[in-house]
Amino acid sequence: MTTETLIWLIPLPPALAFFLIVLLTNKSKALSHSVGVGAAILSWLASMVVFVRALGVEHLGEEPFASSINWLPTGSTWLKIGVLIDPLGAAVLFFVSITIFMIFLYSVGYHNFGQPAGDHDRKGLPPHGATIEEHGHKHMVPSVEPMYSRFFAFLALFAFGMYVLVVSDNLLTMFVGWEIMGLCSYLLIGFWYGKESARNAAIKAFMTTRIGDVFMLLGIAFLYSATGTLTFREIFREETLHALASVPSFWGFSTAGMIALLLFIGTVGKSAQFPLHVWLPDAMEGPTPVSAMIHAATMVSAGVYAVIRMFPLLSLDPQTMSIVAFIGAFTALFAATIAVAQNDIKRVLAYSTISQLGFMIAALGVGAYIAAVFHLITHAFFKALLFLGSGSVIHGMEHGVLHTGNHNVDPQDMFNMGGLKNKMPITFWTFLIGGFALSGFPIITAGFWSKDEIFADAFANGHIVVFITLATAAFLTAFYTMRQITLTFLGEPRTKEAEHAQETPWTMTAPLVILAFFAVTYGWVGIPEHFPVLGGLVPNWFHEFVGGTLAEHPEAVEFSWVPLLTSLGVALGGLFFGWFVYRNVNSPAEDKLQIPVLRNKWYFDEIYDFLFVKPATWFAEIFVYKWMDKGLIDGVLHSFGPVTQGLGSVIRNYIDLPVINRFFGDGSADVTYWFGGKLRAVQTGRVQHYLMFALVTFVVIGAVLVAFGLLA
Amino acid sequence: MTGEQIVFLVVALFTLGSGFMVVTTRNLVHAALWLVSTLFGVAVAYTLLDAAFLAVVQVVVYIGAIAILFIFAVMLTRKDLLDQGPQMNKNWWFGALLAVSTFGGLYFLLQGWDGLSKTATAIPVGFDAVTELGTELVSPAAYVLPFEVASVLLVAALVGAVYVAFNKK
Amino acid sequence: MVPLSWYLIFAAALFSMGLFGVLSRRNAVAILLGIELMLNAVNINLAAFWRYGNVMDMAGQVFAIIVFAVAAAEVSVGLALVISVYRRRNTVVADEIDMMKW
Questions:
Q1: Which CATH class is domain C4-96?
Q2: Contact A686 C99 (CB under 8 A)
Q3: b/e string for A513-535 if b means 16 or more Cβ within 10 A?
Q4: Does domain B1-80 have CATH number 1.20.120.1200?
C-alpha cells in the first residue's frame, strides 16, 4: 500500500486497542496486554516501514509524504486535515514508535502479570503483595495490579494521541493529539486513585498544562485569523511567512512572533518549563511506565516537537527567540539545582527531564534547529531508559520490602538503597549507560553528541550567556546523575530491603537493553563533519536528513575547541565529583547539599498555592458557591415563593373577594333578586289581571303603530 | 228610515241591553237568564242577515245547550243560595275603561274603512244558502276538513270535560 | 237597507260589553258569560261580512259554524274546570284562585 495510506493507519492500532480493551477484554488480563502490546507492535512496524521508505526519498523536505482530506466546510473553502511525514516527522516517528513499544512491553512485567492477586489489594491502590505457600513456609510475593487492563487501555489511548500529533500536517489535529495526551496524563497520573496524593497530582498536572493549552489555542486562533489556514506546509510558504513577519502585533512583536509566543506558552505548560513546571515532579505519583511515557517518550517531547515544528515561524521574530532561549536556559539551570537535593529516585529523574527540556528549548531559542531535534531524540531514548530502569530498581526494592515485611521503608528513597549493582546487574549496567548518556559522557553515548552540538551552536552564534548557563546546568546534571548512581547501586546495601532486592523479569529488562543500545549508538548518526578525528568518518546523516525539513537547509556550524572542551570538562568533572562526594554518604544527614530551599523546590509550590490556588478556592467556595449560588440565585428563587404568595393574597383580598366575589358575583345576584322581587308583583295569579295586562299592551302597541303610521 | 232599519235598531237595542244586564247583574241566575235573552236577540240578528241556518243553530245550540249548561254550573257552584258580597272585583273601573277604549278603538278603526256604508246586495234568485252551506261543509274541495276537525275538537272537549269534572267519590 | 257599519258597530259594542264582563266580574262563571258574549259578537261580524260581501262564498257561514262548535267545547270544558275548582277550593271567586303565581 502507499506510504500515505500507511501513515494514516499508524495511529489506528492503539485507538482500536483502547476500545477493544475497554469494551471487550477488560476482564481478561492476558487478552488486554496482548491487545495493547500487539497494537504497539503494529504501529511500530508501520512506523518503521514509513521511516525506511522516507529514508529512500531524495529531498524529502520538499516532497514529503503528504495526504489530506477536506474536513470542515468554511464558506467557499474547506478546512483540510491530513498527514505529513517530512524528515522531522520521520525521525520523530522512529523514536516515538520504539519507545512506546518498549513501554508497553515493560508494563507487562511492571504490573506483575502472572502473579497471584494480592491479600488486601483494592482497585485504586497500588498492589501490596500476596502470601503464598511454598515449600511449607509462607512468604509474600508481589501481587498483580488489580486494574491491569485499564492501564493498558489508557496507555493505548495515550499512544494514539501521540501518533496523531506526530503524523498530523496541521495545527488542529496536532492540538487534538495534544489534548488527548493531556487527558491521558490526568488519567494515568491518577491511576491509583485511592491515594489522595495521586488524585491531587493528576488535577495539578491537568490544570497546569491547561493554562498552557489555553494560550496555545489562542495562538492557533490568531494564526488562523491571520492566514486563513492551519496546515504547516501552507503556513511555511515564503509569502505567508513574510506577511506574518511584517505585520506588527502587540508589545513590539510581529504577528509571527506573537503567534509563536502563544504557541510556545503551550509548550511551556506541556514540557514543564518554568513557570509551569510544578506538575511534572508530582506526576511521579503514577506508575513508572507512565512516568517514562509521559516524561520521556511522548508528552513532554510533544511540547518540544511543537516548537520545533513552528520553528520557521518562531525564527522570524528575534524578541520571541530571546524569550524562548531565556526560559529554556533558566529552566535548565533551575531544575538542575533542585535535582541535586532530591532523595526519591524518580524525583531526580523528573527534575532532570525538566532540565533537559530546557536545553532543547534553549537550543531552539538560539536557532540551533538540528541540535534541538537531535537532543530531543537522544533524550527520549536515555530518559525512557532511566525511568524504566528506576522502575526496575523500585520493583527490586519492593521485593525486598515484601521479604522483610517492613512496610515503613520507602522503596523509592535512594538512601535506603545501595549495593544494588550486584543484586540487579542488568538494571545496573543499563542504568549506567543511561546515566552517562544523560551526563554527556564523551564519544560512546548519544547524549554527548547531542549536547555538544547545542553547545557548539550556542557558542558559535555568540549567545554566551546561554552557553554559560547551559554549561553550568550540564555540570550539575552530571553531578546529580552520578550522585544518583552512587547512592543507588554502588557501595554496600544500607537496608535489609536492599539486601534482598532481586533482578526483574525479562519483560522489564529486555526493553532496558534495547533502549540502552539506542542510547549508545544513536549519537553516531549525527557526528559533526568538522569534529577532530571522528568527524568525516561517517557522514552527518542526521544533519542532512533532518535539515531538509526547513526551507533553508541550516549550515553546519564550524568547529571550535571551546564548546568541545567545555562539554568534556563539565561532563567528566561532574561525574567525578558526583562519585567522589557521595561514595561515602549514607544518610540524608550527611548529605551537605540537602539545603532546604533546594529540597523544597525553591518553594514554588508554596508560592503558587498562595498566589493562585488559595484565591481560586476562596473564589469557588465562598464567592461563587456561598454568595452567588446559594445567596443570590437561590435567594432569588426562594423569594419567588413569598413574593408570589404575597401577590396572591393581595389579589385575593383586594380584588378577588371585594370586587369579583362581592361586587360582580354577589352583586349581580342581589340585583337580579331585587329586580325579580319587584317584577314578581305582576304575577298575581289572577286571570283577569293577566288579561288586563295583555289588553293594555295590545292597546299601547296599537297606539304606537298608529302613531308611526304603520297602521290605519 | 226603512222598516228594516227600524227592526234592526230594536233588535240591537234589545240585545245590547240584555248584554249589559248580563255583565252587571248581581244575581248569577239572573245573569244566565239575561244571557238567554241576549242569545235570542243575536239569533234574530242572524235572521235579518238571511243566515237562517245560523239562527236556528244559535237557538238550538247556544240557548238550548250552552245557556242551560251555564245555569247548571251556577247552581253547582253556589255555597248557599245567597249571592252576597260585591259582584265586581276591585279594579272594575279599569276594566270599564279598557272596554270603552276597546270600543273606541274598534270604532276608530272602522272609520278608516271605506266599505263601511255598503248596503246588502240582493240574494240571487234560486240560491239556497242552506243547501249551499251543507254542500260546502261536506265537500272535500271545500270545508270538510275544518268540519271534521271541529268534530274531533268536540270529542276532545267532551272527554276533557268529563274527566275534569269527574267526581271520584 | 241597513248599512254594514251598523252591524259592525253593534258587534263591537257587544264585544266590549263582554270584555267588561270578563275583566270586572268576581265570579268565575260570570267571566265565562262575558266570553260567550264576545264570541257571539264575533259571529255577528262574520255573518254580516258574509251577507254584505260575496253571498255565493259560504266561507263566512262556515266560519261561524266552526265558532259555534268551538264555543260549545270551550264552555263545557271551562265550566267543568270551574266546577272542579269549586269542589276543591270551595270558592268560585276568581280573585281567590291565585295559585299560579310566584
A1: mainly alpha
A2: no
A3: ebbbebbbebbbbbbbeebeeee
A4: yes
